[in-house]
Amino acid sequence: MDVLDKERRAANASPKGRSALAEMDVLRSAVIFTGAGLDATMKRLVNDVGRALIAGGATGARANFESFLKAELAQPKVPDGLRDAILHVHPDQSLLAYFLAARTKASFQGSSDLSSRVRQTLGIPKSAVPDTRLESLDGFFVARNNIVHQMDIEDPSSGSVARIKRSPVQVATDCGEVFAVAGLLIRAAAAVCRKAGV
Prior knowledge:
Mean pLDDT: 91
Low-confidence stretches: none
Number of helices: 9
Shape: elongated
Radius of gyration: 21 Å
Number of strands: 0
């Protein structure tokens, strides 16, 4: 992000002043694309690693899978997708696909999603990926959702179209932390696989 700021200042008649609207949009794009990258990476991780761990009987992942199915079956009305999975010619594969689809169906909205839909699903211990590391991304998720759902407008309830100002340093820091936490989750999932022998 320093490069962007230096180039902007060098191209302007004056090196002082606020960032242009286009420059703010580049920062917003960085947040959006980083969020999309996190979603895609975590969905792939959960599908690929989760499938191997659960089918291989890894304790934490298997327990999470069974707990999910018990909760679904305890509902007053069994969800149609679950009923279809049970009646499938290969229910073991179908139930696993149903579970993984439920865990990856939506984008991740915060640390609680990363905890329940990635860490717990894969049986990653909290000691490997502490809550504090996941919670360090909550500010990023708020920024991403403001950009995506409210066009980064400061006060959507007002008639103003003033947009939130993004700092290149803060955006770079937030995006870097997303990559760091994603890497931590991937390494922790690899360690769980090694331990389970899958």
